[in-house]
C-alpha cells in the first residue's frame, strides 16, 4: 500500500474546515440582521422622510413601492401640476393607487 502524501492530508484538512464553516454559516444565516435605512433597529419609526414636493426621482425611488418609472412620473406630474400638498396628492399620478399611498405615507413629509 502506498502512503498518502502530506499535501493530500493538508488539502483534506482545508476542505474539511471549509465544510464546517459552510455548515455554520448556513445555520446562522436566518439570524442575520439586515439594515433598513428607513427603519432604524428597534423602532417602527422611519429614520428620515422624503419631501414629495422637492425630492428628485432618485430619492423618491427609496420609498416602498416606488420604482424608477413611477418616481419619474411623480417628478413629471409635479413639474406640470405643481406641489402634491401631501401624500393624498399622489393619487393624481398614473400608477399610484391606495396601496402605494398607504405604503409611502409613513415615509413622506
Task: Give an overview of the whole structure.
The chain has 109 residues and is an all-alpha fold. It has two domains: 1-32, no CATH class; 36-109, DNA polymerase, domain 1. Helix content is 44%, strand content 0%. It contains four helices and no strands. It has helices spanning 6-28, 57-60, 68-81, 98-104. The longest helix has 23 residues, at 6-28. It is rod-shaped and about 85 Å long. 14% of the residues are buried. The model has no long low-confidence stretch (mean pLDDT 79).
Summarize the SSE layout with pairings.
Blueprint: H1 6-28, H2 57-60, H3 68-81, H4 98-104
Provide a brief overview of the structure.
This protein is mainly alpha-helical and 109 residues long.
Number of strands: 0
The total count of helices amounts to: 4
**Quick one: CATH class of the largest domain?**
Mainly Alpha
Oligomer: single chain
Largest sheet: none
Question: Which fold does the CATH topology of the largest domain refer to?
Answer: DNA polymerase, domain 1
Total discrete domains = 2
Cα-atom Rg, whole angstroms? 25 Å
Approximate helicity band? 40-55%
Name the CATH architecture of the largest domain: Orthogonal Bundle
Secondary-structure-derived class: mainly alpha
Shape: rod-shaped
Strand portion, in percent?
under 5%
User: What do the pLDDT scores average to?
Assistant: 79
Amino acid at each position: 500500500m502506498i502512503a498518502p502524501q502530506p499535501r493530500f492530508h493538508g488539502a483534506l484538512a482545508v476542505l474539511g474546515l471549509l465544510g464546517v464553516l459552510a455548515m455554520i454559516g448556513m445555520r446562522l444565516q436566518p439570524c442575520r440582521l439586515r439594515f433598513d435605512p428607513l427603519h432604524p433597529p428597534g423602532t417602527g419609526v422611519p429614520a428620515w422622510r422624503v419631501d414629495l414636493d422637492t425630492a428628485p426621482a432618485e430619492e423618491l425611488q427609496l420609498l416602498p413601492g416606488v420604482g424608477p418609472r413611477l418616481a419619474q412620473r411623480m417628478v413629471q406630474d409635479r413639474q406640470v401640476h405643481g406641489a402634491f400638498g401631501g401624500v393624498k396628492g399622489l393619487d393624481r399620478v398614473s400608477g399610484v393607487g391606495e396601496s402605494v399611498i398607504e405604503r409611502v405615507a409613513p415615509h413622506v413629509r
